[in-house]
Each structure stands twice: as structure tokens, then as C-alpha cells.
Amino acid sequence: MAGACPPGGRPTWVEVDLEAIRSNVRRFRAQLAPETALMAIVKADGYGHGATPVAQAALAAGAQWLGVAMVEEGLRLRQAGLSSPMLILGQSVKEQMTAAVRAGIDLTVADREGLAEVARAAEEVGSPAFVHLKVDTGMGRLGVWWEAVDEDWIAALTRDSRVRWRGIFTHFADSDGDPEYTRLQYQRFLDVLERVRRARALPPLVHLANSAAALQFPGTQGDMVRVGLGLYGLKPYPGAEGLRPALAWYSQVVYLKTVPAQFSVGYGRTYRTPAALKLATIPVGYADGYRRGWSNRAQVLIRGRRYPVVGRVSMDQIVVAIPLSDPVAVGDRVTLLGRDGPEEITAEEMAAWIDTISYEVVTGISGRVPRCYRGNS
């Protein structure tokens, strides 16, 4: 559903600025040592921006690796012609591993059973599998607990000819909010690395810094940083500067009517007009990822001004209240996320309306919303 901007057809669409993606990569590259690699995280369809065009833009700007959550995402990128090094960050099931090894995609291992399955997949393909050991230093999700990385683990990773140990990594749980816990995780990871060094088995890539850590804790950059949220210009921590949001979300006014005071709007009649005003119908709803929780909370931009979303968000439509004196017309562009003149609605603001995070806002924009791209090079 990618194409030129604005797309034809449905009057609700997402625009992605690929030059903003490239600018954000350059922003991170400027913070890194020349020998430190940058992994662009393009899981979840590039955080809703479109994995393939984002990956192409990031690689063109200086990223060397791509990171995805699952094998299917990696295979789609390979099918799109992207041959760069790539890592599956999540736990892969054995049925997927053979396809990943055949496609030259690195796999994460976090237990001995998973490592054995990777080795069997490599044997089936007839070429070695490249793996990264995930160490849990305090996130509590995937990973070998840091104290359990011992000589037996190191031997298992280095003595099987079917496996090539390419990386070791961990993930910070709170690098955008708790520097003390981040330092604790870092120290635990350093302890693991010291054990591996004593065994003379350190793999080529040590990586632990995400977007927030790469900018706030430069000592954690290691051999590679994994840039996710910052790649898309979303703030990885409060006060982050120098990043350009890449995504804007638009619709149009498709219907207008004037109503009297005490006119009820939407399912459940949760809003009644305080005075006579105009109601504008916008063709976007929760099936598009415009969250029902934004009912009677959200705002949109029309002609550079803010207007409230009134009544409940429906599956396919929202309603916006317009003062009678304002010259809003059918066909006017509606900015749901992005800038219009002096006003801007950010993903962070939209997240705050329902006490969530910007990740959920952008990844939640559904596949039925067409994506189009600016800044193609």
C-alpha cells in the first residue's frame, strides 16, 4: 500500500518522510565512534512506517544492520532485496529456524534447547548459523540470566562447528528513566563480558545500547547500537533533541452539518453540544488505529487550528466540533498526527491522551491506512 503522496483513493493516509529517517540515522552516527555499527530496528513493519522503505533509507544513511522481532519480518525484507546483516531479536521457534539460516539471518539464542535447534537447522541447510547470545541483566523477558553465563555456555557456543557465535547482547529496562538501574544492568553485563574474555571467546559484536542509552550513556555503545524509536524521530526520553518525526497521519472533512445546542453525538450519546455549532465527519476510526480511548479527548488540526473530537470514536469515523464562524469546508485536510502551520500534534501527545506510549500510537495505525513516501532518493 505504498506510493506517492498524497495517494489516490481513500481520503485517510499516512505520509512518511524518508529524509527524516536518514537525518535521524545521521544524528545517531554523529554520536558514535567510527567503528561502532548501527542497527536500525524495523520490526512491526518499521514501527508502522513501512519496514522496507525505512530499512532502505536507514542503510543508505549509514546503518549497517537491521533488527526485526521475528523470522517472518526478516524474510519479507530479504524478499524485498535487502541483503544487509540482520538479526532476529526475539525467540524463534524451530519451524522457522531453517528458513532464517537459509536466508542468512542471524538468530538470538537464550537457552540451550534453542541453541541445539539452531544447530540442527544449520545442519539441515548445510551452512553454519550465526547466533547472538541474549543475556538477561534485569529486563526479565528473554535471555540467559547473567549469573548463569558460565564455561559450559561458552563451550556450547564455541565448539559446535554448525554454529558461529557472532554477538552477545542485553537490553536495558529503563534507560529513559532510571540511570541507577541502567548502571546496574551495565555492570552486570560487564561482569559477563569479563568471564567471556577470560575464556578468550569474545564474539565480534557486543551490543546493549538502545536509542535512549546511545544518546544518554555513550559508554554503553559497545560494538553496535540498536536504534528503534529514535530512528523514527520519536523521543526516546523526555527532552531528547535533534530528531525529526518521520510520520504524519492525515484525513479529510467529508461531511458537515450545523446542529443546535444539546444535540447528542455518537454511540452512547456521550457528548452534547453546548451551543449551536458545526459537526465535521472525518473518515477514520478505531479499525484504522484511531483509538476508541481518544473519544472526547483527542484533537485534530484543520487550517492550522485545533478542534476537539466529540462523541465516541466509531469503527470508521470520528466527529469534530467546529464553531459556526470558522470557515471549515468539505475537502479540507485534517491532520491527525503531525504539523499544520503553527500547531503540531505529536505521537507523544496522542499517547498522553490515553496514558500509553508513542510506540503504541504509531505501530497501531492499521494496514488499511495507505502509506505514501516523501524524500525518496
Q: Summed up, what is this model?
A:
With 377 residues, the protein is of the alpha/beta class. The protein has two domains: 31-232, Alanine racemase (TIM Barrel); 247-374, Lyase, Ornithine Decarboxylase, Chain A, domain 1, CATH 2.40.37.10. It has helices at residues 18-29, 43-47, 51-61, 71-79, 94-102, 112-125, 151-158, 179-198, 211-216, 347-353, 358-363, and strands at residues 2-3, 13-17, 37-41, 65-68, 86-88, 106-109, 129-136, 144-145, 163-169, 205-209, 224-227, 247-252, 255-259, 264-265, 271-272, 277-282, 299-302, 305-310, 318-322, 333-340, 343-345, 371-374.
Strands of the widest sheet, in order across it, are: 3-4-5-6-7-9-10-11
SS-derived structural category: alpha/beta
- Number of distinct beta strands: 22
Overall, the morphology is elongated
Global Rg: 24 Å
Named at the architecture level, the CATH assignment of the largest domain is Alpha-Beta Barrel
Question: Percent helix among the residues?
Answer: 25-40%
The poorly predicted ranges are none
Number of domains: 2
CATH superfamily of the largest domain: Alanine racemase
- What kind of sheet is the major sheet? 8 strands, parallel, barrel
Mean pLDDT, all residues: 96
CATH fold node name of the largest domain: TIM Barrel
Number of helices: 11
Distance between the termini: 19 Å
